[in-house]
Amino acid sequence: MLIMLLVGIPLYICATASIPLAASLIAKGMSPGTAFVFLLAGPATNAAIITMVARFLGKRSAALYVGMISLCALGAGILLDWIYLRMGISASATLGTAKELLPEDLKVIFAILLLPLMLYGIFRREKECSCPESH
After folding, report:
1. Which of 24, 35, 37, 59 is a good FRET partner for 15, with 20 to 30 A between their CA atoms?
2. What's the total number of domains in the chain?
3. Pairwise CA distance, residues 70 & 37, whole Å
4. Is 48 within the bounds of a domain?
5. What whole-number distance in Å separates Cα of residue 33 and Cα of residue 96?
6. Could you list the pLDDT tens digit for every one of the 135 residues in the chain?
7. Domain contains 85
8. What phi and psi values does residue 9 have, to the nearest 5 degrees?
9. Cβ atoms of 33 and 78 closer than 8 Å
10. Where are the alpha helices (DSSP H) in 9-103?
11. In angstroms, what CA-CA distances link 16 with 24, 39, 64, 109?
12. What is the model's pTM?
């Protein structure tokens, strides 16, 4: 967990990119808690954010920011590993099985229910954009 913390803190990675990376690390055998440390520390801290916090709020605030994120990430990672251990769940064995939780018919029903909402959002946005501004 400490290694993933040290890798994740200075790395410039967004939450969207870190999720598939963490999933692949779990598939390769990394514990879920260790991957979670990376998921928390990576997007929340990077060299640019630390520099900006230090510049505008001071070095003490930057150290406190990184320290609190590190402590919270490590605590959450340890807790997650403990939960997996207590429940007897193997993360690598269950990886990729979420698609089998719902029956296929229910997935189709939800897709059909979601379609009108998506169309409403698209047409509403086009209607708002085509209106002239009244400034």
Report:
1. 59
2. 1
3. 8
4. yes
5. 17
6. 999 998 888 888 887 888 888 888 888 888 999 999 999 998 888 888 899 999 999 999 999 999 999 999 999 999 999 998 888 877 765 665 556 666 788 888 999 999 998 888 888 766 665 555 554
7. yes
8. -65, -55
9. yes
10. 15-27, 32-44, 47-57, 59-87, 91-94
11. 14, 10, 26, 27
12. 0.65
Whole-Å CA distances, 73 to 42, 113, 131: 10, 37, 47
Q: Which domain holds residue 61?
A: 2-96
CB 4 within 8 A of CB 37: yes
Q: Tell me, yes or no, whether 68 lies in a domain.
A: yes
AA letter at 128: E
Token representation of residue 72 = 């919270």
What the block records as the tokens of 88 is 């007897």
Residue 104 falls within a domain, yes or no?
no
